[in-house]
Amino acid sequence: MLKSFSSFLSEDMGLDLGTANTLVYVKGKGIILNEPSVVSIATDSKNNKSVLAVGSEAKSMLGRTPGKIEAIRPMKDGVIADFDIAEAMIKHFIKKVHKKSFFANPNIVICVPSGATNVERRAIKESAETAGAKKVYLIEEPVAAAIGAGLPISEPSGSMVVDIGGGTTEIAVLSLGGVVHSSSIKVGGDTMDDAIVNFMRSVHKLAIGESTAERIKKEIGCAGIPDNGDGKTLTVKGRDLINGLPREVVISERQVAEALSDSLSQIITALKRALEVIPPELAADIVDKGIMLTGGGALLQRLDEAIRVTTGLPVSIADDPLTCVARGTGMALEENQNHQDVFLSD
Q1: Which of 141, 167, 228, 282 has the lowest tally of Cβ within 10 angstroms?
Q2: pLDDT-derived band of residue 87, with 50, 70 and 90 as boundaries?
Q3: Range(s) of the domain holding residue 279
C-alpha cells in the first residue's frame, strides 16, 4: 500500500500526533523523537507571527511567556485545534528527522482518535501534506495502540485495548484485523491535570499551572484511596488566591485520588459500556485474555487494580505504554502488507 521511493532523500515516518506529546517513528530506525506538542509564537510590532520554539523548549515557556510570546498547544482532544500552528509543528518535526536532506518528502502514517469526524481527519491529513508529506495515511489510535502492545488483532478472537492519552481515552475491541467496537471520550491526562488545578483552587485556595499539576499527577497521582491513611505527600508551590502572594502547601496522595475520582469514573463507565455492547463470543474471549492498558494514563498508580475490581476482568499494562501508539503506527508502516486493512479510507 505504501509505495517505495528514494530513501536517500526521505524516510517514511509514523506520527503519533498527541495532545500532550508527539512521537515520531522512522522506518527502519524505530522511535527517534518524543517531544511535547507545544509551539511558542512571537508577535512583532507589526503583528506578524513567527515560530520561536517547538517541543521541549516551547513547553518550558508555558505559563512563563512575556506579552508578545505565546506558548500554544495546537492539538486538543487528539485533533487539530489550530491548523496553522499544527502545520508549523509537523513541518518542524519532519525537518528535524531529515536534517541532512533538503528535499524531505516522506510518506507518513498518522494516528487519529476513533471518534474524530471526517472534517477533523481531513484537517490532520491536510496539515501533514502542507507540511511536506508526500502521502498521508491515517490509522485509528486504539488500533495502533493494540498493534504496538503486541495484541493478536488478526486472530479470530477478541482483543480489548484502552488507550489513555493526553486528550482522549480510546476504547476498542478488535478481531480478525478489524475494529468490532470502538469508542472515544474526551477524558485523558489533560482532564486529570485540570481536575488537580481546580482541586487546588477550591480546597487550598492556591493557583497552580498545568506543569505543576502534571508533576503532582505523576509523583503522587493514584486511582484509589491509599490503604495507609493519606499515603505519600508532596510540597506544592503556587499563588495564594486570597492575598496574591506566593505560598506552598503540602498535599497528600489521598487528596489527589479524590481530585481524580470523577475523571477515572468517566473512563471506567465508558469501558463498562463497551463491554455491554460487544457480541457474547468476544466478551468470552476478553474474560480469558483481559484488558490491555496503553498510553500515559496507564502509568497512573493502581489504575489497573481499580479497573480489575470494577469489571472483574484481568487487566494488563503494556510494556512502555507511553510509546505503544507510536510503535503500532510504525509497525503498520513497516509491515504494511500485513496491516493494510487498518488504514482508514479517504
Answers
A1: 228
A2: confident
A3: 153-186+265-322
Placement of cell 516522506 in the chain = 106
Distance from C-alpha of 288 to C-alpha of 265, rounded to nearest angstrom: 24
Q: How many domains does the chain have?
A: 3
**Residue 67: how many other CB atoms lie within 10 Å:** 6
The angle formed by the CA atoms of residues 1, 128 and 102, to the nearest 5 degrees, is: 95
- Does residue 330 contact residue 14 with C-beta atoms inside 8 Å? yes
**Mapping DSSP to helix (H, G, I), strand (E, B) and coil, where does residue 54 land?**
strand
State pLDDT tens for residues 166-219.
989 999 999 988 889 988 999 999 999 999 999 999 999 999 998 899 999 999
Give 321's contacts (C-beta < 8 A, 6+ positions apart).
149, 293, 294, 295, 296, 298, 299
| Higher pLDDT, residue 273 or 133 | 273
Same domain? 80 vs 171:
no
**Strands, E assignment, 191-258:** 206-207, 233-240, 246-252
Residue 124 confidence class, pLDDT cut points 50, 70, 90? confident
Question: Cα angle at 160 between 156 and 162, to 5 degrees?
Answer: 155
Q: What angle do CA 306, 309, 312 make, to 5 degrees?
A: 135
Query: Tell me: the pLDDT tens digits for 47-83?
Result: 888 888 898 888 887 777 676 788 888 888 878 888 8
Q: What's the first-to-final CA gap in the chain, in angstroms?
A: 14
Within this chain, do residues 216 and 133 fall inside the same structural domain, yes or no? no
Environment class of 42 (CB within 10 Å of its CB; exposed 0-12, middle 13-18, buried 19+) = middle
